[in-house]
Write a structure and sequence with these properties.
Structural class of chain A: alpha+beta
Strand order of the largest sheet of chain B: 5-2-1-9-17
CATH class of the largest domain in chain A: Mainly Alpha
Radius of gyration of chain A: 23 Å
Order of helices and strands of chain A: EEHEEEEEHHHHHHH
Shape of chain B: globular
Strand content of chain A: 5-15%
CATH superfamily of the domain at 269-429 in chain B: Succinate dehydrogenase/fumarate reductase flavoprotein, catalytic domain
Oligomer: heterodimer
Structural class of chain B: alpha+beta
Largest sheet of chain A: 5 strands, mixed
CATH architecture of the largest domain in chain A: Orthogonal Bundle
CATH superfamily of the largest domain in chain A: Alpha-helical ferredoxin
Largest interface: A-B, 96 and 108 residues
Distance between the termini of chain A: 79 Å
Number of strands of chain B: 19
Bound molecules: flavin-adenine dinucleotide, iron/sulfur cluster, FE2/S2 (inorganic) cluster
Helix content of chain B: 25-40%
Number of helices of chain B: 18
CATH architecture of the domain at 269-429 in chain B: Alpha-Beta Complex
Number of domains of chain A: 2
Number of strands of chain A: 7
Largest sheet of chain B: 5 strands, parallel
Number of helices of chain A: 8
Shape of chain A: elongated
CATH topology of the largest domain in chain A: Fumarate Reductase Iron-sulfur Protein, Chain B, domain 2
CATH class of the domain at 269-429 in chain B: Alpha Beta
Helix content of chain A: 25-40%
């Protein structure tokens, strides 16, 4: 058997047939210098867009051009993993968080979901609890504070028993996992006319309520997390279901129902106590 | 060349850690409250370390550049985490995990560190489950396992294809609890840009508030860098966009040796490059190799017909396919370690058998196992004795979906092709860096008081990391190693009062950071930062990627030097310093990547052997396998920074007392 090892032939950046495409896209992008200044929509035309590009790669191309032209600063937006898992990206595209496709984040949206000459309006998440930092980047630290108020199991390192001493029915484990899939992106808040964070909070409450490890703190957890959610200025839930429809991880509304049950039970007990 | 001291405790391998743990000096609780620890990074290593140290009573500050600690790159890990639990009763043990890891690393890792890692692996799973991590389970309610490459047991725990997410969210919730209790102060959207040394000890950092752009000084009796790997030096990699080497590199320039920079891992199963606009590459988890079979056509004509769209791979007969891993490595088959699988894919593509337009892709095919493994199983369960092919496909589809659903969805979103109906196309891509800051057994770098944990250090994976071992290492370092080993240093620091950040060392360090930022803006060149990053990536991929040779590496070093000149003369950084400015962040990171790139090539050039991911074309067996030179290179290369482009090499000899080193074979 002969084995081939050529040198220098391997070139990641070889010119490819599908390198650039022929779509033209008209963008209207929200530009805002910082939290204190007023923002506005600005028009940009992006040419030769390939359908294989991701939505954020189109922004990369536009930003490269803006830097080259030297007139406008590049557009600021949050992103990191570009695989739909870190929850950083957060664009409000044509009036929908994360754009037109169900069950995907902005970074997973590809230009093949649009047509030549489409006009696309891109804005940041809109919620008093998520103030704009710059352009499309917002401050979502309220979510971290909600978790800090109770979204955990109080166990110190080194205190755990053998993992298999605690069998958990597969269905419960699976449901818990489905709730735990939340990436903390905030699309549910952005989708909701009341800016409610119920889907996010309920996902964490459910994950832990469905596991025996979470049981001892069930009541305090839900009470504290809901109190923190209210303190952060998120609105109340009126069951419109917009959050579930726009959630990139398809977190289910049944979690909100579970949160409500947990909450009433906890209140009942704390009132009795 | 001088020798360096790894501080490995004496004694038997099996009892070393236990004995050391019980004899390491302790800090009493009232003193802990006066000791401050700076943790840079909130991934698995950083979150678990910060949480555990805060629980012990230390005052902890945590920094990350994302907007929330929950978004650290660990979140993206897919396939799983190893532990020597032997829940499957298939012969696993601490020794076997230890042995597999040393062998997988091609005999270039420390025995003592790796054994400790294997010892604590079980505790990690216990800890994760106790903190609410919803791992996959069997119907009986017990934890489920799967196989990863380079092993013959099932020891990998997982949560669908989102294991990193679930583990990180578990560690993050512990961290948030400590933040809520006031034991940890969190600084998100902050980037560390310098370490501060005072009288030979690390005493803090300079960080930039990424929103306001202001520079801040933070004191710590000790500083822990948990800042991840440097795979993005290649520009295209499976790492998140912002992963970078800056924290480690600044530490390196302040006295921390950098070990084995040329050991990088190219992962065999990633989605191939689709075009020039590509900003990153996407991993298809190694777990897919449990059920996916890798092949290319046997005949070149068929490969060409496939590339031209004239032949559908589903129509190619079984006997016309070359399952080259099963052919070359019958014992491990599709589950050979990553370096071996990647080279084999490159070999077939270089030989003209690639299956996509660029000729740089091979198939990962699930059809066989979908039908005949899972389809049959389900049919049997349903008491269907003579299932049709269509039924088998339908039943198998459901099982595959449960196991790998999110990965299949991701593949479809990115490529537009349905992998349930067509074989996936994959190609190797940069994924992980085994090299990193040199640390001793206590995880301390060569700067007293400065530690490195997780992917940022070099410690446990030798020249090639086995799948599902990075999550294990990050959590081992943070939960179970550093809380003990840091005592060896801090027990002598209890009388040190916190040092004012007005100290001249802090002032000086801040001035340096400030002047670097000003220098970047002052260039006012013509090319965006990405332009330089892409060029650097191409130089390194071509010359210091899957195959390396003397001529290429020598050329690469001079090209990188020239690129550095060009960067500092022609980069254009837009915006302002005192503002939220992602371009400025990138510019600083790319400047450091360029310096690192040179050291990687230098290290690859000096290491005149092949081992693990470091494949030198001039050192291979007749069968194209890596050829080690144990006589001259059974050591760790630790580089000391002198000035830009100039380093001194130190070596740590590796001693194997418990494992007989041999040529690595997976045949
Ligand atoms: C796509 C993918 C899949 C993977 N799958 C697996 C798997 O299945 N199993 C497995 O074992 N391993 C896997 N790995 C590897 C594994 O995920 C990583 O090695 C591991 O998560 C690294 O953890 P860490 O804590 O060391 O660093 P990271 O998680 O990378 O965290 C680094 C942290 O440091 C911070 N930071 C860095 N620099 C600075 C700075 N200058 N200032 C402030 N903060 C800074 C960042 O903000 C971040 O919080 C995978 C890797 C990739 C890319
Ligand atoms: S519930 Fe869904 S939309 Fe809301 S934060 Fe979680 S993943 Fe995002
Ligand atoms: S960038 Fe991570 S989810 Fe989109």
């Amino acid at each position: 058997m002969v084995y081939y090892f050529k040198t220098y032939n391997h070139n990641q950046y070889k010119k490819l047939n599908i390198m650039s495409g022929n779509m033209n896209i008209n963008l209207k992008v929200w530009r805002q210098k910082n939290g204190k200044s007023q923002g506005k929509l600005v028009d940009y035309k992006v040419e030769n867009v390939s359908p294989d590009m991701s939505f954020l790669e189109m922004f990369d191309v536009l930003n490269d051009r803006l830097i080259n032209e030297g007139k406008d600063e590049p557009i600021a937006f949050d992103h990191d993993c570009r695989e739909g898992i870190c929850g950083s990206c957060s664009m409000y595209i044509n009036g929908r968080p994360h754009g037109p496709n169900q069950g995907v984040t902005t970074c997973q949206l590809h230009m093949r979901s649009f047509k030549d000459n489409d006009t696309i309006v891109v804005e940041p998440w809109r919620s008093a609890a998520f103030p704009v930092i710059k352009d499309l980047a917002t401050n979502r630290s309220a979510f971290d504070r909600i978790i800090a108020s109770g979204g955990f199991i109080s166990i110190n390192t080194g205190n755990a028993q053998d993992a298999n001493n605690l069998p958990i029915a597969k269905d419960n484990a699976d449901d818990s996992f489905a709730a735990a899939a939340c990436i903390g992106c905030g699309a549910c808040v952005a989708a909701c006319k009341n800016s409610s964070a119920m889907l996010f909070v309920s996902a964490k409450v459910s994950q832990l309520a469905l596991l025996p490890q979470g049981a001892p703190e069930r009541a305090t957890r839900v009470l504290n997390m809901v109190a923190q959610m209210d303190a952060e200025g998120f609105g109340s839930c009126t069951n419109t279901g917009a959050c579930e429809a726009e959630c990139p991880k398809q977190i289910s509304l049944t979690n909100i129902a579970r949160l409500n049950r947990e909450y009433y039970k906890a209140q009942l007990f704390s009132n009795e106590g | 060349m001088s020798k360096i001291d790894s501080k490995i405790p004496a004694g038997d391998l099996e009892t070393k850690w236990t004995k050391y743990k019980s004899s390491v000096p302790l800090v009493n609780p009232s003193n802990k409250r006066n000791l401050e620890i700076v943790v840079v990074g909130s991934g698995l290593a950083g979150s678990s370390a910060a949480t555990s140290l805060a629980e012990l009573g230390y005052k902890v500050k945590v920094f990350c550049f994302q907007d929330s600690p929950r978004r650290a790159h660990s979140i993206a890990a897919q396939g799983g985490i190893n532990a020597a639990k032997n829940y499957q009763n298939d012969g696993d043990s601490v020794y076997r995990l230890f042995y597999d890891t040393i062998k997988g690393g091609d005999y270039r890792a420390r025995e003592a560190n790796v054994h400790r890692l294997a010892e604590v692996s079980s505790n990690i799973i216990d800890q994760a489950v106790a903190s609410g991590v919803p791992f996959a389970r069997e119907y009986g309610g017990l934890l489920s396992n799967r196989s990863f490459g380079g092993t013959q047991v099932q020891r990998t725990f997982y949560a669908a294809g989102q294991t990193g997410q679930q583990l990180l969210l578990g560690a993050y919730s512990g961290l948030q609890r400590q933040i809520g209790l006031g034991n940890v102060q969190m600084f998100a959207r902050h980037e560390m840009l310098e370490v501060v040394n005072i009288d030979g000890k690390c005493r803090g950092i300079i960080a930039r508030d990424l929103v306001s752009g202001k520079l801040e000084r933070h004191f710590g009796h000790a500083v822990l860098l948990c800042t991840g790997g440097y795979g993005n030096v290649f520009y295209l990699s499976t790492n998140a966009m912002a992963c970078n080497v800056t924290a480690a590199w600044k530490a390196h320039k302040k006295g921390a040796y950098f070990a084995n920079p040329c050991y990088t891992q190219i992962h065999p199963t990633c989605i191939p490059v689709s075009g020039d606009h590509q900003s990153k590459l996407t991993l298809m988890s190694e777990s897919l190799r449990n059920d996916g079979r890798i092949w290319v056509p046997k005949r070149k004509e068929d490969a060409e017909a496939i590339r031209n769209g004239k032949l559908n791979p589903n129509d190619l007969k079984e006997e016309d396919r070359d399952y080259y891993l099963e052919r070359r490595y019958p014992a491990f088959g599709n589950l050979v370690p990553r370096d071996v699988a990647s080279r084999a894919a490159k070999e077939r593509c270089d030989a003209g058998f690639g299956v996509n337009k660029t000729g740089e892709a091979v198939y990962l095919d699930f059809a066989f196992n979908m039908k005949y493994k899972y389809g049959k199983q389900v049919a049997t369960l349903k008491h269907i004795t003579n299932p049709t092919e269509a039924q088998l496909t339908e039943f198998g589809h459901e099982v595959i979906k449960e196991k790998y659903g999110n990965l299949f969805d991701m593949y479809k979103q990115i490529t537009g092709v349905n992998p349930y109906e067509n074989p996936m196309m994959i190609y190797p891509a940069v994924h992980y860096t085994m090299g990193g800051l040199w640390v001793d057994y206590n995880l301390m770098t060569t700067v007293p008081g400065l530690y490195a944990l997780g992917e940022a250090n070099f410690s446990d994976h030798g020249a090639n990391r086995l799948g599902a071992s990075a999550l294990m290492q990050g959590l081992a370092d943070g939960y179970f190693v550093i809380p003990y080993t840091i005592g060896a240093y801090l027990a002598n620091e209890i009388s040190v009062k916190s040092i004012s950040t007005d100290h001249e060392a802090f002032v000086e360090a801040e001035k340096n950071v400030q002047s670097t930022i000003e220098k970047l803006f002052a260039v006012k060149g013509t090319k965006p930062v990405d332009f330089f990053h892409k060029r650097l990536g191409k130089i390194i991929w071509d010359n210091c990627g899957m195959a390396r040779n003397v001529e290429g590496l020598t050329k690469a070093i001079s090209e990188i030097k020239a690129l550095r000149e060009e960067f500092w003369n022609d980069v254009r950084v837009t915006g302002e310093a005192n503002d939220f400015n992602p371009e400025l962040e990138k510019a600083g990171r790319v400047a450091d990547f360029i310096e690192l790139g040179e050291l990687m090539c230098k290290d690859a050039l000096e290491r005149n052997e092949s081992c693990g991911g470091h494949f030198r074309e001039d050192h291979q067996t007749e069968e194209g396998e890596a050829l080690r030179d144990d006589e001259n290179f059974k050591n760790v290369s630790a580089w000391e920074f002198k000035e830009i482009g100039n380093w001194d090499l130190h070596q740590e000899e590796l001693v194997y007392e418990n494992i007989k080193i041999a040529q690595r074979s997976y045949k």
